[in-house]
Specification:
By secondary structure, the chain is mainly beta. It is globular, with a radius of gyration of 26 Å. About 50% of the residues are buried.
Length: about 775
């Protein structure tokens, strides 16, 4: 960095420290302009009056300027409003780089909604007699996701979302023995149907190659395809026990029985969908993914991509089809046993094996001084942002990540013995991002994941509605030990809520291996709900095996089974101090650590220091806009989703006619209560409605909103199996609202309490919603 730039940065920081407002500079005049066709045309010169049509054409124009050494100061490419359906990922290499006095900026025009889409529109649906719709897509099409009016559809499965089977025995010689009824009447085509298995912190997807009778015809042997069978029996795995694990079957036409499910017959190119109540396939916008990445930075250690900035862009509609040909066998956090282990031998990596990864919409390799700011990552079939093979001084700030099949942000990789230290990412900043509804298809997904990194700053992020861990830092679990460059990471002022909803043995904040000089402080972690209520492995704060050299202090923990999970004597040399919690439950089997007793507030009457931490955690005021997400017009929360949590009473899931969702949660207990925790897409007044199933007990509701709480009742005699409005209420964007349902104490009402779905429909702009 030049001396003048450093001087300006110091002045800027000093002004902020002193509380003096720093006004954002006026946007510079763009060098090149891009607009959707027909206004844009790649034969144009890229001026405001004659814009290009594609981002890639603008990149080439920038490259020509760079090659001619005509760049003096920042060079700006501005994209006008519209959806840009990319034919291929836009790829940048070292020749597209700026330098320390001239950043290349790719930005949305002020106030413009610019969408980079890897999807394709699906139209001309035909209604079938069985309540489904069908359409012919390209026979070469291959995809695993579908979005209907911006809502993610469900790949056809049995049992339906919210229910699972359980393996009654361990795996056999070449597969699993399943109840005969589970595949009765199903045409099993080779390598099409998947067994989706949840194993503690892992989520496997195993294709069925064939079936045959087992145990004299009482069971069906599902023979697992290669390479998955080799992966789960011979390749590195943390847990190989399948007996007692939950699973479901996915991807057969015969499973297409619930609203919101789809099935693609890849042999014919016929796509089928069963609409949800209220969906109209004639008018609906239906999109399927085509590309797996949208922006790719192809840097190398000897030729990194540098000094690029991306601002205000929306990344949408990516896919990823590797599981269709090779399954999905993870080790942890979507680090996958490679498709071809023989070709992945590499002594730099753990197990001497270079793992596969789920690709990201923004995929960067060996890239430095790259900024991603104010962007949206929505409706993705993979991850959001990945910086791999090193990468220094990058900034990911003020972005939103919503409805992703995989994780949000990843730094680094599983290279404990790198030949080139350049593979260790250094001095990267991840700040003020909003991440929610991640891991929709791959439950081991982490919101923010750092492998071996040096001096990462992860601060003021908000994370909610997560299947697994929120922030995971470090790798290796001591085998081998972390490289000496790993450490000095800072994880501060983050807000985590509603996590560990699908898998066990994770945490709000999770670490592993040596990270000397690392600090984890001033975070607020709340609402950990592991799926197995009996096990409840993990904790809000989880220093896992061989974590060493970290300092955890001044964190606040609420509504979790335990505040700390320190379970192994090999975890040593750490300090854990000044933790505020509403539970004293913890585990500490690591004697060589300093663990201060928790500062307990069992009644949640928090002391002032705890309140100050909670108030400061999460997005800073200047980045509130990151909570505004490009979600569906109606926020609909089914009780089978991660948005619903049971609070008291014993609950079970079941399908029933007339329900909105695939299943309904119900409880016979007098003290039964549950809550929906919506992600609100933007400030505003919302009409709140509930889908009340017939046969449910009378209900009481408490709605927590921007101006307090409201209490309402729904009694017998009111309409059922349809949306029933409760009223209009103000909500702020983000994860703050709540709707609590409980069984009303009505004499002679012996019916079970049923929770199906709620809907929030925005009625007007927010105005002054803050209390």
């Amino acid at each position: 960095m030049s001396r003048s730039v450093t001087h300006r940065a110091r002045i800027h920081s000093l002004l902020l420290f002193l509380g003096i407002a720093v006004l954002a500079p006026a946007q510079s005049v763009p060098t090149f302009v891009v607009a959707p066709a027909p206004l844009g045309d790649d034969r144009h010169d890229g001026s405001a009056g004659a814009p290009f049509a594609t981002l890639d054409r603008a990149r080439l124009a920038v490259r020509a300027r760079l090659a001619a050494r005509e760049v003096r100061g920042d060079l700006v490419v501005e994209l006008r409003a519209g959806t840009y359906e990319l034919e291929a990922p836009v790829r940048f290499d070292a020749a597209d780089s700026g330098h320390d006095r001239a950043t290349i900026v790719y930005r949305a025009a002020r106030g413009a909604d610019v969408v980079l889409s890897g999807g394709r529109r699906v139209a001309d649906w035909t209604h079938e007699g069985d309540g489904t719709y069908r359409v012919q897509v390209d026979r070469s099409a291959d995809f695993r996701q579908l979005w209907v009016d911006d809502r993610r559809a469900v790949r056809a499965r049995t049992p339906n979302v919210g229910c699972t089977f359980v393996f009654e025995a361990e795996k056999r010689a070449d597969g699993f023995d399943l109840p005969r009824a589970s595949l009765a009447g199903v045409a099993v085509r080779p390598n099409e149907i998947e067994i989706s298995v949840l194993i503690a912190w892992m989520h496997k997807r195993l294709r069925i190659a064939q079936t045959r009778d087992a145990e004299g015809g009482a069971l069906t042997r599902a023979v697992i395809a290669e390479p998955e069978w080799d992966a789960i029996t011979n390749q590195p795995q943390g847990d190989r026990t399948y007996h007692g694990r939950s699973y479901w079957l996915e991807n057969a036409r015969e499973f297409l029985d619930a609203p919101g499910e789809f099935f693609l017959d890849r042999s014919t190119g016929v796509l089928r969908y069963r609409p949800r109540p209220g969906e109209d396939l004639v008018r609906a916008v239906v999109i399927r993914p085509e590309l797996q990445s949208l922006i790719v930075l192809d840097g190398r250690p000897d030729a990194p991509v540098r000094h690029l900035r991306f601002e205000g862009l929306t990344f949408a509609h990516t896919g990823w089809t590797r599981p269709n040909r090779a399954g999905f066998v993870d080790v942890q956090a979507n680090s996958l046993v490679p498709e071809s282990p023989r070709d992945a031998v590499d002594p730099q990596f753990r197990h001497n094996q270079r793992k596969d990864r789920i690709p990201a919409a923004f995929q960067a390799s060996t890239s430095d001084h790259v900024v991603i700011r104010g962007c949206r990552f929505v409706r993705l079939g993979g991850a959001g942002v990945i910086f791999a093979h090193g990468g220094d001084d990058n900034t990911i700030e003020g972005n939103s990540f919503f409805d992703l099949a995989a994780g949000g942000i990843e730094l680094g990789e599983d290279a404990a013995r790198p030949v080139n230290p350049r593979l260790i990412p250094r001095r990267n900043r991840i700040a003020n991002n909003f991440l929610a509804h991640l891991g929709a298809d791959y439950f081991g997904s982490v919101a923010i994941l750092g492998y071996y990194t040096q001096a990462s700053v992860i601060t003021h992020n908000e994370m909610a509605a997560l299947p697994y861990t929120a922030i995971s830092q470090g790798w290796g679990w001591g085998a081998p030990s972390a490289p000496p460059e790993s450490g000095a990471n800072r994880i501060t002022y983050n807000r985590v809520s509603n996590f560990l909803r699908r898998l066990d043995d994770g945490g709000g904040l999770y670490t592993t291996d040596r990270q000397p000089g690392s600090e984890i402080a001033f975070n607020f972690i709340t609402r950990m709900t592991p799926p197995d209520d009996r096990k409840k492995a993990g904790a809000a704060l989880y220093p896992d095996q061989f974590t060493e050299g970290t300092h955890w202090h001044d964190n606040v923990v609420s509504e979790v089974p335990r505040w700390l999970h320190l379970w192994n004597p090999n975890i040593q040399g750490n300090r854990i101090e000044r933790t505020f919690s509403d539970t004293a439950a913890y585990r500490n089997d690591g004697p060589d650590n300093v663990v201060e007793s928790v500062r307990l507030s069992a009644d949640r009457r928090w002391p002032e220091p705890a309140l100050a931490i909670m108030a400061a955690a999460g997005l800073e005021p200047a980045f509130r806009h990151a909570r505004v997400i490009a979600g569906p017009s109606d926020v609909i929360l089914e009780s089978s989703s991660v948005d619903f949590q049971t609070l008291t009473g014993s609950w079970t899931s079941a399908t029933r006619p007339g329900s909105y969702g695939a299943v309904v949660q119900h409880s016979p207990d007098a003290n039964a209560a549950g809550r929906w925790m919506p992600i609100i897409p933007r400030d505003g007044v919302y009409e709140v409605s509930v889908w009340r199933p017939s046969g449910s007990a009378a209900m009481d509701f408490v709605i927590l909103h921007a101006k307090g709480e409201s209490r309402l009742a729904m009694r017998a005699g009111e309409p059922t199996d349809r949306w029933q409005p409760l009223g209009e209420f103000p909500f702020l964007a983000g994860a703050g609202g709540e709707l609590i349902v409980s069984r009303a104490q009505v004499p002679q009402d012996t019916a079970p309490l049923m929770a199906d779905a709620v809907r929030l429909r925005r009625m007007e702009s927010g105005g002054s919603l803050r209390p």
